[in-house]
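User: Reviewer 2 asked us to show a designed sequence for the structure in our supplementary figure. I'm pasting the structure tokens here. Could you produce the per-position amino acids so we can include them in the response letter?
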């Protein structure tokens, strides 16, 4: 049986080039015993080469989760100090059900599975939410809703886990320069979409146009998240990433429908409307 006296952290979704990858490397630099996971071990071989422990974990597969729990128990002697629920932040997700399976239901099952180890350590759960759960991004409603669920679930978990000495931290991630959009199939509107007349405006938005350059480097994001996680009194809701200040400010001090004013201007909804109306008149 392998045991370690170091603090332990397990991170889901650590494929190369993403948020989880950066978090794994930063925790490793800070001296923790890091268990990096992904569905495909080939995608995290680089972390193994750096000396990190790696495990295969498919967060939407119950058996895979249970196998990972047993492996972690063996590796750590039955404890886990920090669980980072990150899967989904850099994944290709095509449909609403799959998106909620990865971003929401998997988070619940993974947290539940590792709860006994976290309780043994009086540890922390860190969930990677998103400003997409705050601001209604057009043509990304399913993703927005799944991240809103993450934000709210984490706050509920914090209350529910408090009697056991386990903390829950929500990371409201802004724009990060990862391979998120590169990993997506080129977004296309359905041929029969009502928005087809304005696809030249909409499809670039679906592909992340205008967002990539607004992001921070994954290493900068990871440094802030890890520093907060390792504090004795962590910030419970941490905003990190590009565009977070404006979203925080508007959502904190704005009125209930402020996004109805801001979002249409950001995403050229007036131009979209004109193209759709023009197409309707010509038919």
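Assistant: Here is a per-position design you can include in the supplement:
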């Amino acid at each position: 049986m392998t045991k370690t006296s170091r603090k332990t952290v397990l991170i889901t979704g650590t494929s190369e080039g993403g948020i989880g990858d950066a978090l794994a490397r930063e925790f490793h630099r800070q001296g923790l015993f890091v268990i990096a996971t992904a569905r495909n071990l080939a995608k995290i071989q680089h972390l193994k080469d750096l000396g990190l422990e790696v495990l295969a974990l498919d967060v939407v597969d119950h058996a895979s989760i249970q196998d990972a729990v047993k492996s972690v128990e063996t590796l750590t002697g039955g404890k886990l100090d920090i669980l980072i629920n990150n899967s989904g932040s850099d994944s290709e997700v095509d449909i609403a059900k799959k998106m909620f399976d990865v971003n929401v239901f998997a988070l619940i099952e993974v947290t539940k599975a590792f709860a006994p180890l976290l309780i043994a350590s009086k540890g922390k759960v860190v969930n990677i939410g998103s400003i997409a759960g705050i601001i209604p991004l057009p043509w990304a409603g399913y993703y927005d809703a799944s991240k809103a669920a993450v934000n709210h679930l984490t706050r509920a978990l914090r209350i529910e886990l408090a009697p056991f000495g386990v903390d829950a931290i929500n990371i409201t991630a802004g724009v990060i320069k990862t391979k998120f959009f590169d990993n997506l199939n080129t977004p296309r509107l359905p041929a029969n979409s009502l928005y087809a007349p304005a696809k030249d405006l909409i499809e670039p938005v679906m592909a992340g146009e205008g967002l990539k350059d607004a992001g921070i480097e994954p290493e900068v994001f990871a440094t802030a998240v890890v520093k907060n996680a390792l504090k004795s009194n962590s910030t419970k809701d941490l905003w990190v990433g590009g565009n977070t200040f404006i979203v925080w400010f508007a959502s904190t001090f704005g009125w209930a429908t402020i996004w109805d004013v801001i979002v249409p201007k950001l995403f050229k909804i007036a131009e979209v409307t004109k193209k759709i109306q023009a197409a309707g008149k010509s038919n």
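For the response letter, you might also mention the following. The chain is about 45% helix and 15% strand. The domain at 8-185+215-254 is CATH 3.40.50.720 (Rossmann fold).
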